[in-house]
Design a protein that fits this description.
The chain is an all-beta fold. It is built from four helices and 67 strands.
Length: 788
């Protein structure tokens, strides 16, 4: 019986469509541990081993058990060797899963879940590209179709055993796919097809591969290939737009199998079905060319089908790069969207944290213009769960796009209401949101925001922030009134800065210092920095007393290391830290900007291997965030993340792709959960977080606790005492009153390794923690159990 699943089922069966979401990858982590925040809704490939389905996401894999629905994650933290997966395929005979990466790295996932890395192609010095296009299994080997030829992996020996260069005279050629019909191997390329006898002892030599000339278009672009019942099937692109052809090879003869009206054609075979996918559907055809199963884009919202297969139970498993793993069953009909919890995109432009929540602006700009193709919305991490608000569920964000732009590039959380935040939208204005979604858009008609000169409705809002009085400050450049404020009562006010140059400059980021002065980055176009602007409105009721100064790289005008400024931060001492394309500088006395005294920034000098140098002088610094201990976290374009001491003279940590799970060395933003000390890094490949050892301290002990408590005999990790007074004095004693630990808290948290001053593990018993501030006016006491 024909079991075609088409769009007509959408209305009939809407009640049966459900989404499965797992928070398995979001448990709390201990100090010094990492956790990934991967958009698992982006699935690019799917495979099965027995009752387990492997769904390859953009930056990791999740497995789904057919028997009980259990989801498990397979990521860099759990053993994968790389990021950005390009393909996945499972060998039915051995149960080995082959994972290919954009970097040409390869992992083998064995049946016992052991992961073996084969970096041979990645490390190989080859002229031209090394991309892995396709994976084929035959005779206990995996054959990788690559941009330069074919790489053979011996699955039993877990090693690369051979490389075939099949182009003319053994030259490199881009092999798009391979197929094996039991006796012959077929390779399809950008400019024709090659066939070889599988048992030819010289198959490694290009002379064993014969070009297929008995075909209508021998030099055409063939994009994919497969075999079924001894026949070959290939996809040939055509010069005509939106038209691909499938050809069949049977008994030495090539013939047309069918023509498609759409682009994106790919063929595969599985469980005696010929699988055909284009940009709008995936179909399973039987030997008589009947379409037995089909999943198309009309069956669920925002579908983007990549590939799939039909299992032995007649269930269609589909990889979708918007909705995750799709499970479609015929009888009874059901369609299930399966994806572990995470943000719905890897795009991240800016982040802000307050009260334990992380708010994320996804961007995006292309140079200094709106990237209209990126409509990723905004994300919220709260209670260890991600929620994404985009075109599928946020009417206000859709209205923002309709008004002219999807580009959210700055975010500020309301300090008086942790459920309330504002996003700067480049091209429209400001979007106000709550945890339930967007609620209002502020533009020229309902605020004092000004657009770019000559384009009054094109408001290039580049920064939002709150001051200590809960006023929202907005930077929107391209005019001479680039600074506006929204008061807590909802009223707006703008400020004229009569400097002609400002009409040319964009305003990016904005912060308010301890003197209520507003600092903002100035940029002319995408690549020309113009330093920093500082504005002080003084008495808002008094006209003409406003002050403005531009800070540049000139001596006497700020002496910045470089005029291209990328980020600003205010530390706990009130100093302004400035990240530029040539490192970091600090203005220790922001009040000097308008006092007439010198306000030139100072560069931090530190000693590295006996050589004095400026802090991060060879790095473009993209993000600066201050933790609870006043230490500085720096993000860079090439060097990853650096944690420096409070004065910037001592490097405490450096995370990069070589020594940590960081997915990229390009850091776009950093935010810190002030309650837990977890540090969130926004990179060009998504978000990852690290549990730091500093939290925000308070004026009184607030919900202080020891974690873990009790400390079990087999636990040797850090013991955290948190919720403390800021920079408190912390002492721990045993039941006899003997002091076993003494330290000053990092902000609101102290860390103990469980050893006494002699380096010995303390004995089993109840221990008392005594906490006080510097003058002893505030104290607190708690107890915990050590079990050794």
């Amino acid at each position: 019986m024909k079991k075609i699943l088409t769009g007509i089922w959408l209305l009939i069966s809407l009640a049966f469509i459900n989404s499965f979401s797992s928070s398995a990858q979001n448990p709390d982590i201990s100090i010094g541990q990492w956790r990934e925040h991967i958009p698992f809704n982006i699935v690019i490939g799917v495979a099965e081993v027995g009752e387990t389905v492997y769904a390859a996401g953009q930056y990791g894999i999740f497995t789904y058990s057919k028997t009980d629905g259990e989801i498990n994650l397979v990521t860099r933290l759990s053993g994968l060797s790389d990021y950005e997966i390009s393909g996945i395929r499972a060998d039915k005979n051995s149960g080995i899963v082959v994972v290919a990466y954009i970097t040409s790295n390869v992992d083998l996932i064995l049946p016992d879940k052991t992961i073996i890395n084969l970096p041979d192609i990645k490390r190989k010095n080859i002229v031209g590209g090394k991309r892995i296009n396709h994976i084929l299994f035959a005779g206990g080997h995996a054959y990788l179709s690559c941009e330069f030829g074919i790489v053979v992996i011996d699955l039993s020996r877990r090693e690369v055993s051979d490389t075939y260069y099949i182009g003319q005279n053994g030259q490199n050629t881009n092999v798009n796919a391979l197929a094996f019909n039991g006796t012959q191997m077929l390779a399809v390329t950008d400019s024709g097809m090659y066939m070889a006898n599988y048992n030819d002892p010289n198959i490694f030599n290009y002379t064993a591969w014969h070009r297929e000339t008995n075909v209508v278009a021998p030099n055409a672009n063939y994009t994919s290939a497969t075999s079924l019942n001894g026949k070959f099937y290939v996809v040939k692109t055509n010069p005509a737009f939106s038209l691909d052809s499938v050809l069949e090879y049977n008994s030495g003869v090539w013939s047309s199998y069918f023509n498609d009206d759409y682009e994106g054609g790919r063929v595969d075979s599985y469980n005696n079905f010929l699988l055909y996918r284009n940009n709008f559907k995936i179909s399973a055809l039987d030997a008589s060319k009947n379409e037995v199963y089909r999943v198309d884009v009309s069956m669920y919202y925002n579908a983007s089908i990549m590939n799939g297969f039909v299992d032995n139970q007649g269930v269609f498993w589909v990889a979708d790069q918007n909705k995750g793993l799709i499970r479609v069953s015929v009888s009874p009909y059901s369609l299930q969207e399966i994806a572990p919890n995470g943000p719905r995109s890897a795009a991240v432009w800016a982040m802000d944290s307050r009260h334990g929540d992380i708010w994320v602006a996804s961007g995006a700009l292309k140079l200094d213009e709106i990237n209209y193709s990126q409509k990723n919305g905004w994300y919220l991490f709260s209670g260890n769960q991600w929620n994404t608000y985009n075109t599928s569920n946020d009417n206000t964000y859709n209205a923002l796009i309709a008004a002219g732009s999807p580009a959210l590039i700055s975010v500020a959380v309301d300090p008086s209401d942790p459920d309330h935040a504002f996003f700067a939208c480049w091209g429209v204005g400001v979007m106000e949101c709550r945890k339930s979604g967007g609620i209002e858009i502020y533009k020229r008609s309902n605020s004092t925001l000004f657009g770019r000169t000559g384009l009054e409705d094109y408001i290039i809002a580049g920064g939002v922030t709150f001051d200590e009085n809960n006023n929202l400050w907005v930077g929107a450049g391209g005019n001479t009134s680039p600074i506006s404020v929204r008061r807590p009562d909802g009223s707006w006010q703008s400020f004229v800065i009569p400097v002609v140059d400002l009409a040319r400059f964009a305003v990016l980021q904005i912060l308010v210092d301890d003197l209520n002065q507003k600092w903002f980055i100035l940029r002319e176009g995408a690549s020309q920095g113009q330093g920093i602007g500082v504005f002080n409105e003084n008495d808002p009721a008094t006209a003409g007393d406003d002050q403005f100064r531009r800070i540049t790289d000139a001596t006497g005008q700020g002496a910045l290391p470089n005029i291209f400024v990328r980020c600003l931060a205010k530390d706990k001492d009130g100093a302004i830290w400035i990240g530029t394309d040539k490192g970091v500088s600090v203005i220790y006395n922001p009040g000097n900007v308008f006092s007439g005294s010198s306000f030139d920034s100072q560069r931090i000098i530190l000693e590295q291997d006996g050589i004095a140098q400026y802090l991060l002088e060879t790095e473009a610094v993209t993000a600066i965030t201050i933790d609870g201990a006043n230490r500085k976290w720096f993000g860079t374009t090439n060097g990853g993340v650096f944690l420096m001491s409070s004065d910037g003279t001592k490097q405490l940590l450096n995370f990069n792709t070589s020594n940590s799970p960081l997915p990229s060395n390009y850091i776009s933003s950093i935010a810190i959960d002030e309650k837990s000390g977890e540090v969130f890094f926004g990179t060009e490949k998504g978000i990852i977080s690290y549990r730091g050892d500093a939290t925000e301290g308070g004026e009184v002990c607030d919900d202080y606790l020891v974690f873990p408590n009790p400390v079990k005999h087999d636990y040797y990790g850090p013991i955290a005492i948190r919720g403390l007074l800021e920079n408190a004095d912390v002492k721990i004693t045993d039941v006899a009153g003997n002091l076993v630990y003494h330290a000053i808290a990092n902000g609101g948290q102290a860390i103990w390794n469980g050893n006494n001053f002699s380096g010995e593990r303390v004995k089993t018993g109840v221990y008392t923690v005594f906490v006080s501030n510097s003058d002893g006016s505030q104290t607190c006491v708690t107890k915990f159990l050590m079990a050794n």
